[in-house]
Design goal:
The complex is a heterodimer of chains A (about 90) and B (about 240). Chain A is built from 3 helices and no strands. Chain A is mainly α. In chain A, helix 1 packs antiparallel against helix 2. Chain A is rod-shaped, with a radius of gyration of 20 Å. Chain B has one domain. Helix content of chain B is about 65%, strand content about 0%. Chain B has 6 helices and no strands. The longest helix of chain B is centred in the last third of the chain and has 40 residues. In chain B, about 25% of the residues are buried. Classes of the chains: A mainly alpha (about 90), B mainly alpha (about 240). At the A-B interface, helix 2 of A face helix 5 and helix 6 of B.
Chain lengths: ~90, ~240
C-alpha cells in the first residue's frame, strides 16, 4: 500500500516540479531577451529567434518529465481494485 | 478515448505510415504542379513555392553561414515535412504521424546520419575522429567518450522532444474533446472546448518543426565549422 501511495505522490508531484523550474528558467530567458531588444532594437529579429530556440530547449526538459508521467500513470492501480482490497 | 473511428485509423499500427505517405504525396504533388512549367513572371503557386524556398534557404544560411547553401535542401525538406505531418493531426479524422515514436526516431536518425556523414565527408575520416577527441590532445581519453555520448544524445533528444510535444498536444485536444459533453448537459450536446487549443497546437507544430531544423543545422555547424573559417556574422 505504501508503494502505491508513493507512486501516486510521484505521479502527482513529478511534473509540477519540472514545470516550476522550467517556468523560472524561461522567465529568465524572456527577461534577457527583452533587455537585449530594448538595448538594440535593430537586432530584434536575431534576438527573438535565439529566444525561441532557448525556450524550446527548456521546454523539452518538461516534455521528458511529461513522458515519465505517462509511463508512471500506466502503473497506477484501479481505484475499484484498491477499495475492494481495503474492504477485506 | 473510444469513438466511432473506423478500423482504418483507430487501432491500426500502419495508420501512421499511411498518414505519412499521404503527406509525402501531397507535398510531392504540390511541388510537381508548381514547378511544371516555370514562367518568368510566376503564377500564384510558383510564387508561393519560390517564397518558401528562398525564405528557408536564407534562414539556413543565416544559421550555418555562407557555406550552408549546400545543406539547405535537406534542412528545408525536413522542416516542410515535419510541419506538414504535425499539422495533419489537427484535421478531424487524421492523426499526426509524428505523434508516434517510430516516426520521430526515424527523422532523428536521418538527421543524425546526415550530420555524421557530412562530418566524415568534409573533415575526412581522421579529421572526424580528431574532432571527437577535443582540443587538448592529452585530454583525449576523457573527451572521446564524452563526445560520443553527446553525439548519441542528440538524436535521442530530438526524437523525444518532437514526439512529446506533438503527442502531448494531440492528447490534450482529445481529452478536452472527450470532456466536453459533461459540461453542458441538457441543451447543448457538447461544447467544443478544444477549439481554443487548436491555434496553440498550430503554433506548437510550427515551433517544433523549426526547432528540429535549427538544431540539425546547429549540430552540422558544430561538426563542420572547424573545417572552414569562421563565418563573419553581424554580432554586437
Amino acid at each position: 500500500m505504501l508503494y502505491f501511495a508513493a507512486l501516486a505522490i510521484a505521479v502527482g508531484l513529478g511534473l509540477p516540479i519540472a514545470v516550476l523550474s522550467a517556468a523560472l528558467g524561461q522567465g529568465k530567458v524572456g527577461a534577457s531577451a527583452m533587455d537585449g531588444i530594448a538595448r538594440q532594437p535593430e537586432a530584434a529579429g536575431k534576438i527573438q529567434l535565439s529566444m525561441i530556440i532557448a525556450l524550446a530547449f527548456i521546454e523539452s526538459l518538461v516534455i521528458y518529465a511529461l513522458l515519465m508521467f505517462f509511463l508512471l500513470q500506466g502503473r497506477l492501480p484501479e481505484t475499484a481494485a484498491i477499495l475492494k482490497t481495503l474492504a477485506r | 478515448m473510444e469513438g466511432h473511428g473506423s478500423s482504418l485509423v483507430e487501432g491500426n499500427p500502419w495508420a501512421l505510415v499511411g498518414m505519412s505517405g499521404l503527406v509525402i504525396l501531397v507535398l510531392a504533388g504540390v511541388s510537381y504542379i508548381g514547378t511544371r512549367k516555370p514562367k518568368r513572371v510566376p503564377g500564384p503557386l510558383q510564387n508561393l513555392l519560390e517564397m518558401a524556398i528562398s525564405g528557408l534557404f536564407s534562414f539556413v544560411e543565416s544559421v550555418i553561414g555562407p557555406q550552408g547553401r549546400k545543406f539547405a535542401p535537406f534542412m528545408s525538406t525536413l522542416f516542410l515535412y515535419i510541419l506538414a505531418m504535425n499539422l495533419l493531426g489537427l484535421i478531424p479524422g487524421f492523426r499526426s504521424p509524428t505523434s508516434g515514436l517510430n516516426m520521430t526516431v526515424a527523422l532523428a536518425l536521418c538527421s543524425f546520419l546526415y550530420v555524421q556523414f557530412q562530418g566524415i565527408r568534409l573533415n575526412g575520416p581522421w579529421g572526424y575522429v580528431k574532432h571527437l577527441m577535443g582540443e587538448p590532445i592529452w585530454l583525449a581519453p576523457l573527451m572521446f567518450p564524452i563526445h560520443i555520448i553527446g553525439e548519441l544524445a542528440k538524436p535521442l533528444s530530438l526524437s523525444i522532444r518532437l514526439f512529446g510535444n506533438i503527442f502531448g498536444e494531440d492528447k490534450i485536444i482529445v481529452i478536452l474533446a472527450g470532456m466536453s459533453p459533461f459540461l453542458i448537459k441538457p441543451w447543448l450536446k457538447c461544447l467544443p472546448i478544444q477549439f481554443p487549443m487548436m491555434p496553440f497546437a498550430v503554433f506548437t507544430s510550427l515551433i517544433q518543426a523549426l526547432i528540429f531544423m535549427v538544431l540539425t543545422a546547429a549540430y552540422l555547424t558544430l561538426m563542420v565549422g572547424e573545417h572552414e573559417e569562421e563565418p563573419v556574422s553581424a554580432s554586437h
